[in-house]
Design goal:
alpha+beta; Cyclic Phosphodiesterase, Chain: A; 3 helices; 23% helix
Length: 192
């Protein structure tokens, strides 16, 4: 099973997808891709697949699943629901030479990073590798062959407020059309 851990949130995907569609037009018209080859150089994330990842686990043997469930369940018990904001775009490895394009997180990113570190540390205790960094973000596109310069992008300013209500263990099945995600287990934050 190919698994990842993400946040359970109030809906934001449709609103964010409309921002993504505006960015598609801009990136196409501005030709911000070095050695531009058209929109086929960019793989866009569908609205249903926009998510805020806590940790990507990769291929996991089914016999480990219950141990992962117990670990995540006990780890998130100390966290409460919280709000965060989505605003702005950026890219990895940097905005001038972005191969991964993402929506930036503000107002709540410290809480997100704290949860990421806690989950990461707990899963390391059962054999998963620790992450090298914690940058809360929502990926919306990947450049297939060339980088994209986002420095001169003139997108409409946007601000989306979201409530993080819990954690999801997600399965990802890769297909030619793109990944198909399904929820395997839900955990709610325990508000005090």
């Amino acid at each position: 099973m190919r698994l990842f851990i993400s946040f359970k949130t109030t809906p934001y995907e449709d609103e964010l997808f409309s921002v993504e569609n505006k960015l598609k037009s801009e990136i196409n018209s501005m030709k911000m891709i070095s050695d531009y080859r058209g929109m086929n150089d960019v793989k866009w994330v569908e609205a249903d697949n926009l998510h805020l990842t806590i940790k990507f686990l990769g291929e996991v043997e089914e016999k480990l699943f219950e141990n992962i469930v117990r670990t995540i369940g006990s780890t998130i018990q100390s966290f409460n629901s919280f709000n965060f904001s989505i605003r702005g775009i950026s890219g990895f490895p940097d905005p001038k030479n972005a191969r991964v394009l993402f929506f930036s997180i503000s107002d709540g990113s410290d809480c997100i990073a704290q949860i990421m570190r806690s989950v990461d540390s707990s899963l390391a205790n059962i054999g998963f590798d620790l992450e090298k960094s914690y940058v809360p973000h929502i990926t919306f596109a990947r450049a297939k062959s060339k980088s994209i310069n986002l420095e001169n992008a003139k997108w409409d300013k946007f601000f989306i407020s979201v409530e993080a209500k819990g954690v999801l263990i997600m399965r990802s099945v890769l297909t030619k059309e793109g990944p198909i995600y399904s929820i395997l287990k839900e955990f709610d934050f325990f508000d005090k």
